[in-house]
Design goal:
By secondary structure, the protein is α+β, with helices and mostly antiparallel strands. The protein is built from two helices and seven strands; from the N terminus they run ααβββββββ. The longest helix has 29 residues. 11% of the residues are buried.
């Protein structure tokens, strides 16, 4: 095509030619934008979720049989454990009351706990429980509002006797 055959636009200028250089610039620009967006998304994904729930799934599978036995031993105790969750502006207070099948509090217990965030392991909060009397414990932790899993463990002389995991909502 000669330059004489090109019709000028309404402004009197000739339209731009589509050259090999322009196609190369458009193609490289397109893939640079796609690569940049992918880099931002990868950084956001890696920094917001660690991705590891179980460090060693094989060992966790082997420990499952032990957990079944422990749950049967726990059921045989016939304990009643009541947890009262009381959120306030700065911390979350948890009160535990433990009674056996006769309604009496078991002696010599230690309580430990954890507020587990359902989607982000890094947000988990340890609970420090203090004994208020036989079978009565009070603990606190800093936790944001939303859904949490309250994980409670009761033990005596280092031996675990009771474990409970319940979903709670903190307003």
């Amino acid at each position: 095509m000669s330059a004489d055959c090109v019709t000028p636009t309404a402004t009197g200028r000739r339209p731009r030619e589509l050259t090999g250089r322009m196609v190369l610039i458009c193609l490289v620009s397109f893939f640079a934008v796609v690569g940049g967006v992918n880099a931002v998304m990868i950084k956001a994904a890696v920094s917001t979720f660690g991705g590891v729930e179980t460090e060693n799934s094989y060992q966790a599978g082997l420990a499952f049989t032990g957990q079944i036995v422990a749950s049967r031993v726990q059921d045989a105790l016939h304990w009643r454990v009541d947890a009262k969750v009381l959120p306030n502006a700065t911390t979350t207070l948890i009160e535990l009351t433990v009674t056996d099948d006769g309604g009496l509090p078991p002696n010599g217990l230690q309580a430990a706990g954890l507020l587990v965030h359902p989607t982000d392991k890094r947000a988990d909060r340890a609970l420090s429980f203090e004994e208020q009397g036989p079978g009565k414990f009070r603990g606190h932790a800093e936790a944001a509002h939303g859904q949490w899993i309250l994980d409670i463990e009761l033990s005596r002389s280092g031996g675990h006797l009771f474990r409970s995991r319940n979903r709670v909502f903190l307003p």
